Amino acid sequence: MTDKTSDQADDIERALVARLKAGDGRAIDMLMQRHATRLRMLARRMLGRNDEGDDLVQDAFIALWRQADRLDPERGAIGAWLTRVVVNRAIDRARRARFLRFIGLDSAPDTADDLPDPEQTASARSEIAAVRADLEALPPRQRAAILLAADDEASTASIAEALGLSVGAAEQLLVRARRALRLAAMKRAGAVEAKGKAEPS
């Protein structure tokens, strides 16, 4: 892209942001035409799933619409802003998925289509909410240890240092926390199965 073409593109982006700030819904459509394909490819590569990548791009444009009054094209290109939003949200999703795998709850429903089944989506959200409740129910040190291990991929030695414990004590916290979370998950699974058997067919 030549300097002249780049300047023209910047001028167009600035004009679109001004229209967006004024509440012109067509401006968001035009920005989507300019950036959505690239962002979608980026999100899909980061997540490895088409449906989740599309969700992230949609979220990014919703954020753009909601935060339009705070945008300043002079401080950076809108394309770069959108890219940061997609990358940050992809990282957050990957961390959540890694956490579920870490505690043995990686069986959140997958869908073959690009459009998730509403029942499966509701089930996945319910499972995540249940895991959060299980985490809150852990004693504080167990909760801190498991979150440090899952979110930061920290070594047991660094977890021990962060919590002011011996390595052995940190290992025991992790063992107890994982056991408690798995037990809670098994209880939920048993309750769902029992409910399914009790319901008339």
Describe this structure in words.
The protein is an all-alpha fold. It folds into two domains: 12-102, Rna Polymerase Sigma Factor, Chain: A, CATH 1.10.1740; 118-198, Arc Repressor Mutant, subunit A (Orthogonal Bundle), CATH 1.10.10.10. Helix content is 78%, strand content 0%. It is built from eight helices and no strands. The protein has helices spanning 3-21, 25-47, 50-66, 78-102, 118-137, 140-151, 156-163, 167-198. Helix 2 packs across helix 4, helix 6 crosses helix 8 and helix 7 (156-163) packs across helix 8 (167-198). The chain is elongated and about 60 Å long. The relative contact order is 0.08. Mean pLDDT is 76; it is low at 108-115. This is RNA polymerase sigma-70 factor (ECF subfamily). Residues 135-181 form the RNA polymerase sigma factor 70 region 4 type domain. Belongs to the sigma-70 factor family. ECF subfamily.
Structural class: mainly alpha
Assign an overall shape.
Answer: elongated
Poorly predicted sequence stretches spanning 5 or more consecutive residues: 108-115
CATH topology of the largest domain: the name is: Rna Polymerase Sigma Factor, Chain: A
Q: How many DSSP-defined strands?
A: 0
Structural domains: how many: 2
What is the residue-mean pLDDT, rounded to a whole number?
76
Gyration radius, in Å: 22 Å
The name of the CATH superfamily of the largest domain reads RNA polymerase sigma factor, region 2, helix turn helix motif
How far is it from the N-terminal to the C-terminal residue, by CA?
Answer: 64 Å
- Please count the helical segments: 8
Fraction in helix: over 70%
Keywords: DNA-binding, Sigma factor, Transcription, Transcription regulation
InterPro entries: RNA_pol_sigma-70-like, RNA_pol_sigma-70_dom, RNA_pol_sigma70_r2, RNA_pol_sigma70_r4_t2, RNA_pol_sigma_r2, RNA_pol_sigma_r3/r4-like, WH-like_DNA-bd_sf
Domain RNA polymerase sigma-70 region: 31-98
Domain RNA polymerase sigma factor 70 region 4 type: 135-181
